[in-house]
Amino acid sequence: MHRKNIVKLAASMLTILALVAFYMVPVAMSQDDMTQVPADAFGTLERPRVAFAHDAHNEKAGIEECVVCHHGKTEDGKMDKENSSEGDPCSSCHAVKPTDGATPLMRAYHRQCITCHEAKGAGPVACGQCHAK
Amino acid sequence: MTEFYVFVSGPLAWIAWGFFIIGSIYRLVSMYALAKAKDGSSLAYMSLPYSLRSILNWLIPFNTMGWKSDPLMTVATFLFHIGFLLVAVFLGAHAVLWDTAFGISIPSLPGGFGDAVSFVVIAACAVFAYRRLALPHVKGVTRPKDWFSLILVALPFVTGVLAYHQVGPVLLMTTLHVLAGELLLALIPFTRLSHALFALLTRSYMGSEFGAVRHAKDW
Ligand code: HEM
Ligand code: HEM
Questions:
Q1: Among B6, B111, B174, whose Cβ lies nearest the Cβ of A128?
Q2: Looking at the domain B2-213, which fold is it?
């Protein structure tokens, strides 16, 4: 091959790569590509981040209903198991240090994740399994 | 394995706490009955001011002749006892368990600090073991039950550090740690470690004896 052709080929391949990457960005922002539980609300972390491939997890665990995790809030401040809240981060109702008597964020995660794993006898239950190095 | 961990960290923890609390009450009550039967008059001579004086003085490192006579042991035992209580009660991971299980938020040690204290406690246990192996006057009075309680105390720290640093299979290590912690808790009232229940009382007895009875300038 001529050197000119190699340059052309490399340039077009780079363009394709750049385009693919460009189109991936919005996907990476959605739950399809969530690989870890969001932890920004905590500030500095005591423990390593928790792996959580949103869609793959729910498929493997056979969870059909979004409301199992994304419950809503009723008028009188109770947990709403009818109307789901997917899209709202947990921290929008569960502050890290709540002043309104709500369940704090860490406890909300631990109770939701660990309670189900313990009940099913499957999935991580020990600290180091979720907060893996 | 997951089911076993759920059992160990659930029902078994209740059982261990039950042994600890009921066992402690039983030991204190039966010791009181024994003291009354064997040495009833000493109970009448127990003095609160002299008891407190003795306890306070022994709480200060190198304050008493006992502490001055054995500096290595004094340093090791103070680090050990303070470290033990700090870790057992205020370790971050232990606080998270109270939070998840009962929704109680207790103050806790920052992550790195709890880890460091755990290593200090393990080092203090090594000093205890060294004394029992190497120093003739300690070796001579060492019985198997002394080794048993030392191992009982060291195990939760060793397995806890391994679990925290994720050395070896994490779920197995954490399970072993919880088992070790529960074994210790359940056996405290029934081993040499029962001094945790009695130490303040024996100290009070000695303090009262020297202060209120013999009027010695000693505590
Ligand atoms: C009912 C009994 C107990 C339970 C359920 C329990 C549970 C736990 C758990 C879940 C961890 C976290 C492991 C990790 O971070 O991956 C831990 C760590 C630890 N625990 Fe316990 N524990 C118990 C008793 C004790 C006792 C009696 C001691 C000794 C005082 C102890 C000392 C430690 C230590 C040293 C660590 C690791 C600290 C570090 O290196 O950061 N535990 N424990
Ligand atoms: C009120 C609390 C406690 C008091 C006042 C106390 C006091 C003492 C005293 C006076 C000694 C003997 C002096 C020495 O060998 O340093 C001792 C030794 C020891 N204590 Fe404690 N103690 C307490 C709680 C505990 C607890 C909760 C544990 C662990 C479960 C513990 C474990 C040990 C060990 C392992 C030794 C002996 C080390 C050896 O020589 O092999 N103590 N303690």
A1: B174
A2: Fumarate Reductase Cytochrome B subunit (1.20.950)
